[in-house]
């Protein structure tokens, strides 16, 4: 079955870079868009950005200046880098798949989530 | 950005009740509206896509309707496992956005 698994440090210092990787198994990465979504404590869900299997990206303008999403099809992975983090970036970070050929953008497969805390 | 407004933000209901959650988009999104259920400590789970298409494995007591700017999620015959937070999400245009969530609690 399709599985997504986030990995990366759970604690990042303010002003440093948050880095996470999502490993995909059970499905080809080709043809889908691969997304990052976060859930800050006590707040709602926020879409961070996405990348296609060919490397095209789409970023949330609110994060665009600090954000890089990349993909490595050969390793079945895609990654997130968010620079200059503050306490406002503390959240559970999810990776998620936008399936191919639906005509819309939705998230049908999710990782279990990775809590990242920004603190010195 | 397209703003998504859900109501109510929380509700109390009993097992067997019928509950309806609404979601309003700030612009016309046609049927590009998706519903998720999230339980504590878990990732969101896609229940309904394209406003009314039930995902495989989702019980038929869940249904969705609407088009344009106004949408609703209905749970008929509420079951104990349905107590959770429900989110709508528009997939029409970037940036993709979610509603603030509707918490369904046990009365």
Briefly characterize the structure.
Chain A is mainly beta. Chain A has strands at 3-7, 11-12, 18-25, 33-39, 46-52, 57-59, 67-72, 77-82, 91-98, 109-110, 114-118. Chain B is an all-beta fold and 107 residues long.
Give me some keywords for this one.
heterodimer; A: 120 residues; mainly beta; seven-stranded mixed beta sheet; four-stranded antiparallel beta sheet; 11 strands; globular; B: 107 residues; 50% strand
Describe the structure.
The complex is a heterodimer of chains A (120) and B (107). Chain A is an all-beta fold and 120 residues long. In chain A, 0% of the residues lie in helices and 49% in strands. The mean pLDDT of chain A is 96. Chain B has 107 residues and is mainly beta. In chain B, the strands form two sheets. In chain B, strands 2, 4, 5, 6, 9, 10 and 11 form a seven-stranded mixed beta sheet that branches. Chain B has a four-stranded antiparallel beta sheet with strand order 1-3-8-7, with no helix packed on it. In chain B, a hairpin with a 6-residue loop joins β9 and β10. The radius of gyration of chain B is 13 Å and the shape is globular. Chains A and B meet through β9 of A and β5 and β10 of B.
Please, what is the average pLDDT of chain B? 97
Largest sheet of chain B: 7 strands, mixed
Shape of chain A: globular
- Please give the count of helices of chain B: 0
Q: Segments of chain B where pLDDT lies below 50 for 5+ residues?
A: none
Overall shape of chain B: globular
Helix content of chain A: under 10%
Order of helices and strands of chain B: EEEEEEEEEEE
Helix content of chain B: under 10%
* Main structural class of chain B: mainly beta
The count of DSSP E runs of length 2 or more, i.e. the number of strands of chain A, is: 11
Number of helices of chain A: 0
Class from secondary-structure proportions of chain A: mainly beta
Protein chains sharing the most extensive interface: A-B, 22 and 25 residues
Radius of gyration of chain A: 14 Å
Q: Which stretches of chain A of 5+ consecutive residues score pLDDT under 50?
A: none
């Amino acid at each position: 079955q399709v599985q997504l698994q986030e990995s990366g440090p759970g604690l990042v210092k303010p002003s440093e870079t948050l880095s996470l990787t999502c490993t995909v198994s059970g499905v080809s990465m080709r043809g889908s868009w691969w997304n990052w979504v976060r859930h800050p404590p006590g707040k709602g869900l926020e879409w961070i950005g996405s990348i296609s299997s060919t490397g095209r990206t789409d970023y949330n303008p609110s994060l665009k200046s600090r954000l890089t999403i990349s993909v490595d099809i050969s390793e079945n992975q895609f990654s997130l880098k968010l620079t200059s983090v503050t306490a406002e970036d503390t959240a559970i970070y999810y990776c998620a798949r936008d399936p191919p050929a639906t005509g819309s953008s939705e998230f049908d497969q999710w990782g279990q989530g990775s809590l990242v805390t920004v603190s010195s | 950005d397209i703003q998504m407004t859900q109501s109510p933000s929380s509700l109390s209901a009993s097992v067997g009740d019928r509950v309806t959650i609404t979601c309003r988009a700030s612009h016309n999104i046609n049927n590009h509206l998706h519903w998720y259920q999230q339980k504590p400590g878990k990732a969101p789970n896609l229940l309904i896509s394209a406003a009314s298409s039930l995902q495989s494995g989702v019980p038929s007591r869940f249904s969705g309707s609407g088009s344009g700017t106004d949408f609703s999620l209905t749970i008929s015959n509420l079951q104990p496992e349905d107590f959770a937070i429900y989110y709508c999400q528009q997939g029409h245009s970037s940036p993709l956005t979610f509603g603030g969530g509707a918490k369904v609690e046990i009365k």
